[in-house]
Amino acid sequence: MEISGKGLACERGGRLVFTGLGFSATGGRMLVLRGPNGAGKTSLLRLIAGVAEPAAGALSFTGAGEDGEIAPHVHFVAHQDAIKLHLTVEENLAFWAGFLGGGDIGTALDALNLRALRSFQAQRLSAGQKRRLGLARLALAPRPVWLLDEPTVGLDTHSQGLLASLMTAHLEAGNILIASTHIDLPVPSTDVLDFAGVTS
Q: For residue 12, which phi and psi values (nearest 5 degrees)?
């Protein structure tokens, strides 16, 4: 399984964010995106997820389906937690299970230490608890590609360890993980894409 990009350029709001970007992400290895704010890390994740189109260059995806479409195979966790505040923790996971075509809610609750909070409305959760709920869909339904944008923001040390365990298991299964992060996580098999030199 591999995702690669060649000669990629990205524009946002009429501004060239980066140009001439190339990368390769393979199953079993984490690709970490590094660079200053505004360098284009989030923009690249959006391109890979199919949320936006590149201004130039090409993306290719092999190994998870004959159609070459990446979107059905991706968990994209962005800055927003993508939770419904009026629903409980368990109801939020049930919503995502329906959206994703199934999933084990109990496994997701346990993976991010949310079982004791299952009946709490999401609006009553702390910022860190909301982040854990947003990340829980990673454990809810399997997807071979994880795109994570600053996934540790708001997480305490214990919760970072839970996330690292999920990430390690994902990689050990031969899957792809691409993440922008400012901290080093205890995850083996890591490559780095440095955005220095690709910004406009």
A: -135, 125
**Cα distance between residue 55 and residue 184, in whole Å:** 31
Alpha helix positions (H), the chain? 41-49, 89-100, 105-111, 127-135, 137-140, 157-172
Q: What is the pLDDT of residues 98-155, one digit of tens each?
A: 999 999 999 999 999 999 999 999 999 999 999 999 999 999 999 999 999 999 999 9
Is position 78 within any domain?
yes
Domain count, the chain: 1
What tokens appear for 131 in the block?
Answer: 């982040």
Rounded CA gap, 136 and 82, in Å? 11
Structural domain boundaries enclosing 86 = 2-194
Q: Which residues pair with 75 in a beta bridge?
A: 146
Cα gap 45→59, rounded to integer Å = 12
